[in-house]
């Protein structure tokens, strides 16, 4: 198990946090989580989809509106390999975000035949 902290997000006040479909670029049609901060910075979590694999948001526990309007205190990823009887390889990835208003956990599930990546990419555009 690995834990990654997204330190550039910490302390930022988000104006919006959305789960949406990619509408441009390489990832058209894939799901993504988009965080937009008051200072114009943008943070995107998305998977670069390929053949013979899928990586999707399985569940969001908590209210995304709790992440808006107050500083982000926690932004971290925890991932691990899971046992999938139908496929050779599977990966779950949890993202935990916390503010003084609440905690939101986003669970992504990646499944493949073991040849393709099941990871979620993190892109940041700082101002």
How would you portray this structure in words?
With 127 residues, this protein is mainly β. The protein has one domain. 0% of the residues lie in helices and 54% in strands. The chain has strands spanning 2-5, 14-21, 31-37, 42-46, 53-61, 74-82, 89-99, 102-112, 121-125. The strands form 2 sheets. Strands 1-6-7-8-5 form a 5-stranded antiparallel beta sheet, with no helix packed on it. The protein has a 4-stranded antiparallel beta sheet with strand order 2-3-4-9, with no helix packed on it.
Summarize the structure.
With 127 residues, this protein is mostly beta strands. It is built from no helices and 9 strands.
Number of strands: 9
Q: Total domains, how many?
A: 1
Shape: globular
Elements, N to C (H/E) = EEEEEEEEE
Q: What descriptive keywords fit this protein?
A:
single chain; 127 residues; mainly beta; 5-stranded antiparallel sheet; 4-stranded antiparallel sheet; globular
Question: What's the structural blueprint in terms of helices and strands?
Answer:
Blueprint: E1 2-5, E2 14-21, E3 31-37, E4 42-46, E5 53-61, E6 74-82, E7 89-99, E8 102-112, E9 121-125
Antiparallel strand pairs: 1-6, 2-3, 3-4, 4-9, 5-8, 6-7, 7-8
């Amino acid at each position: 198990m690995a834990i990654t902290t997204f330190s550039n997000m910490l302390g930022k006040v988000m104006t919006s946090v959305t789960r949406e479909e990619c509408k441009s670029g390489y990832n058209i049609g894939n799901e993504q989580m988009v965080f937009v901060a008051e200072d114009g910075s943008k943070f995107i979590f998305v998977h670069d989809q390929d053949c013979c694999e899928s990586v999707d948001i399985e569940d969001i526990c908590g209210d995304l509106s709790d992440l808006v309007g107050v500083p982000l205190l926690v932004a971290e990823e925890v991932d691990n390999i899971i046992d999938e009887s139908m496929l050779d390889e599977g990966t779950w990835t949890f993202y935990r975000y916390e503010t003084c208003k609440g905690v939101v956990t986003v669970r992504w599930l990646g499944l493949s035949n073991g040849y393709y990546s099941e990871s979620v990419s993190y892109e940041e555009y700082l101002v």
